[in-house]
Amino acid sequence: MSLSNPLTSATVALSGPDNSGKTKQLGILLRRLGPAGTSGGTLDAHDPRWPAIVAGPGGMGGWWWEHGPVEEVADVLASSYLERARRLGDAPVRLIDRGIPMLEATLAATVAVREGLSADAAADRALKLLEPFRAGLAGAEAAEFGVLLLHHEDPEVGTARALSHEKSVTPGYAEYQRHLHTQIHRLAADGRWSNVIVVNGRPVVEIQDELRQVVHPAVPAVPARALPGVRVVALGGLSECGKSSAGEYLRVHHGHARLKIGYLLEDAARWAGVADPYQLHPVVRAELLVDALDRYCAAHHFLDRVTVESLHEYDSAAELRRMLGGQLSILYLDAEPEVRARRGTAGPVDVVDRDEVKTSRGADRIAGLAHVLVDNNGSRLRLERQLDMVALGARWPLRTPAVAPVNTLGLPVPLESYLSELLDRTTVQQPPVIDLLAVTGSGARGKYQKGWSDLDVFVIADPAGTAELRRVLERLEVDLGGVKLGLTVLTEGECRSGMVTSRLLHVLALLGSGSLAAQWCRPGLVLPAPDLAADVAASVKAGVQGAVEIRRQLLKGAPDLRALYKVTALLAKVLLRFSGVEVSADADALAAVLSEAAGAGPRLLTEDRGDRDQAVALAELELVRDARRDRAQAVVLAELVLGRWLATTALPGGQ
Hints:
With 655 residues, the protein is an alpha/beta fold. It contains 26 helices and 16 strands. It is elongated, with a radius of gyration of 34 Å. The protein starts with 9 loop residues before the first strand and ends in an 8-residue tail after the last helix.
């Protein structure tokens, strides 16, 4: 079927060996399609001989493997495939389990076992048995958009995985599966399916997403994706454990859409024509929940994170884990019974009564399925920090910082010696006093200027090491030679929960991207790497602080020249970030803002300004250079940059 000619209606045939997930995937897709889709049903519904076969000696298995002539087996199977194709109807999307190539593979594997044939001989034998139906089968196959699911690229591995799902396996069945996989892989190599998807143990929804991606271009009625990139946080726990508080916090502070499981189930049930979803098997309820999530997120395509509450049913929760895989995080909130009893607005007896209902469904056992156990016996502040770690952990990857020795920074010799001695006294002993040390600011960029720059140092350390770190710093203070040490110390927990200033978030982002190297890092330490969007968004707070500090300096009788210059440069960097320009050096940032203010776009200090009015361009550069040593020029520069910032807050219409 040609992808260049999308079809308004089509037959999608999903094939694959046993236990590859065909039925599950077709069921999910059929439910999602609603009235636009129809199922071809089972093969035994399409030939009148099946009831007698099932009722005969040994049932279907006895007929298939023992007393049914292989010619009859081929006839019944081929007739069933053809009749199913004829009865598919005119729905926009017709879904069938096992396309025409599977008939050939199944029959070849059957005769290989029954007649002791090699793979090649069995393939030839199957073609001869199907010869009377060749024209009809060719026409039916041409009308299919065929997709094949494979357990694995290696048929032997695939066979083992198919058999692992069976409760018991006879030698004959194992031999059949081996032949079936061989035949399926042969036909796949011959190009009998439009697309091949290798399952390889991946989650159900990930396979569904890939299935839709390969089918949608040819059959637009099939949705293009299934929950692409959506992170689902499912909240579980007994009564009054804090699930609602957790869901609301994640909504307000981390942008999660907050959804109720009851609403989703009822919505899916209406779509599927189910009167009471709570009468269904828990596994089916999980499928309905995923279907409702899929449709909701497709209608709100901007969503990439949602919470669902509350998980009360163990079997449904287990199925959600299997279906969503890494897209799902189950958070189980736990609190002692007496704590939860105090929180209940209707009294402790009400809490106990509700707990009995929930535990009867296995709500307490969901703790064993949870990705994160949240202790909610303490303060709200403690709960929120745990939730921060969960939310940010899903968005900020953990990375091992790069390390560069102190002598690569190009610092003055006394400062290089100071840092080396600091590291010797804090990292040699076991356990080390610190977990990480990184020089930041101009000292990290090779731009340190004696008499102007501070020595900015970022340290991660456990609170237990604070006293020893203080003693080391006191002993080494004289070695700084009057240079101001800008030392910032955080714990690993503060980094993971995002409890850092915008400047320190930027440091974490630089460490995570490799743009900044640490001078020492404890083996095994990993730190969150905030994404650029989070880094830029957080920098607004630095801009607010900078604008306040500029005015504080300007209102002094004699502003601190160095402090005014640096805070003006900070505000300039924030302004540039929202123009998509990242600048580290103070002078470059100031020059770029001046250039942008003149309507020429942001240009760094060293960039060509030949297309500008030379007198204006020269004046800009001189202002940036003079502002470092001339207080009046620093004030002019600060007022200009502050004006650019305040222009973004101007009231509409001169109000």
